[in-house]
């Protein structure tokens, strides 16, 4: 077929949230059931977070949670009968590439149904959580996100990139920009696009869109982040952010406040190496821009015998006030200067070392 008509190319060209239906019925992971998953993963050890269910009235943080080590098979058995309305358990953000000796056919797959045969199971992350488990509101620095729901329902709240949700990098997590707001308060909630993704459905989240995800039931899902050319400029922003955060953090106590659990605190020299690599990657590169315009709608795309049928629906009132084309900030102007001037990196590093 026409390569421009693949699912991903359609999504990338529209650059708005999309809900995909009837695309993954024959996809290997969609055949997984919890008893099968329990058998496949019975010898794996994972970290599970336990926290308070988020119903508003606070700004949730990953560092508020406790983290426990579990046998994955035991966790799957436990979570099927867990019914607390106050606390949740979430085996979140587990890369399939980190699993040991998993040979199941259900874990040998790619994302070719979306026109992305290069995205393999090793580029995939899985999420298994109890009712009420959630990921705090944030936006990702890199790529766009395809998130496939396999078991249970997951609720998504989304806002366009420039909607003001008080972005913060404290606590720091590489490639995640968190909101400093209680996004469930009415004045923010009314502008959110709210979607419930059911088993067999996939949500597409464009680059830099804010999102909060909460499991409405026991939920199992898989996702992949699709790299984009524009990520190279974000790698520079991330390298500078890492340097600043680790420089200000002074001791082990502040690590628990400034850095999310599981995030490695790297040395100053390692951080400089990250920055140097980002500089090299960006030599001669200019930030791509999309034509000016506002996002006014999201998409529901259904796959049937006639092909892809696309419906456009309006975003909530007020959420279309933000242009997808993000304005060039003073920081981005500095980044552009760094990557276009061969001497600035040397001068910057000399100052830092002094």
Give structural notes.
The chain has 354 residues and is α+β, with helices and mostly antiparallel strands. The protein contains 9 helices and 18 strands. It has helices at 7-14, 34-40, 72-79, 186-189, 231-248, 252-258, 268-282, 330-340, 342-353; strands at 18-21, 45-52, 66-71, 87-95, 110-111, 116-120, 124-129, 134-140, 144-151, 154-159, 167-173, 176-179, 193-197, 201-205, 210-215, 219-226, 297-304, 307-314. Strands 3-2-4-7-16-9-14-1-17-18 form a 10-stranded mixed β-sheet. Strands 11-12-8-15-10-13 form a 6-stranded antiparallel β-sheet. A hairpin with a 2-residue loop joins strand 11 (167-173) and strand 12 (176-179). The radius of gyration is 21 Å and the shape is globular. It starts with 6 loop residues before the first helix and ends with a helix. Residues 321-328 and 348-354 have low confidence and may be disordered.
């Amino acid at each position: 077929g026409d390569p421009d008509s693949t699912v991903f190319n359609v999504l990338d060209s529209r650059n708005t949230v999309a809900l995909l239906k009837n695309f993954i019925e024959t996809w290997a992971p969609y055949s997984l059931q919890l008893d099968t998953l329990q058998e496949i993963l019975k010898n794996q050890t994972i970290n599970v977070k336990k926290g308070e269910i988020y119903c508003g009235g606070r700004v949730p943080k990953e560092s508020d949670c406790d983290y426990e080590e579990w046998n994955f098979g035991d966790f799957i058995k436990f979570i099927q009968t867990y019914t607390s309305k106050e606390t949740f358990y979430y085996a979140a953000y587990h890369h399939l590439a980190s699993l040991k000796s998993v040979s199941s056919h259900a874990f040998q797959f790619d994302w070719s149904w979306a026109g992305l045969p290069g995205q393999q199971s090793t580029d995939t992350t899985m999420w298994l959580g109890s009712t009420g488990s959630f990921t705090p509101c944030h936006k990702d620095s890199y790529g766009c996100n395809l998130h496939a729901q396999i078991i249970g329902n997951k609720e998504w709240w989304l806002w366009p990139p420039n909607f003001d949700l008080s972005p913060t990098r404290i606590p720091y997590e590489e490639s995640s920009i968190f909101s400093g707001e209680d996004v469930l308060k009415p004045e923010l909630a009314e502008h959110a696009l709210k979607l419930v993704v059911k088993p067999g459905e996939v949500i597409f989240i464009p680059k830099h869109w804010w999102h909060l995800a909460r499991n409405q039931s026991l939920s199992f899902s898989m996702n992949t982040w699709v790299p984009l050319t524009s990520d190279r400029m974000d790698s520079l922003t991330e390298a500078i952010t890492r340097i600043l955060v680790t420089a200000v953090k002074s001791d082990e106590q502040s690590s628990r406040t400034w850095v999310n659990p599981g995030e490695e605190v790297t040395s100053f020299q390692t951080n400089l190496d990250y920055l140097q690599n980002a500089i090299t990657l960006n030599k001669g590169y200019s930030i791509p821009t999309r034509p000016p315009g506002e996002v006014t709608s999201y998409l529901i795309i259904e796959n049937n015998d006639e092909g892809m049928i696309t419906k456009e629906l309006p975003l909530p009132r007020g959420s279309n006030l933000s242009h997808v084309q993000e304005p060039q900030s003073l920081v981005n102007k500095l980044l552009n200067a760094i990557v276009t001037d061969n001497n600035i990196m040397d001068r910057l590093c000399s100052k830092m070392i002094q």
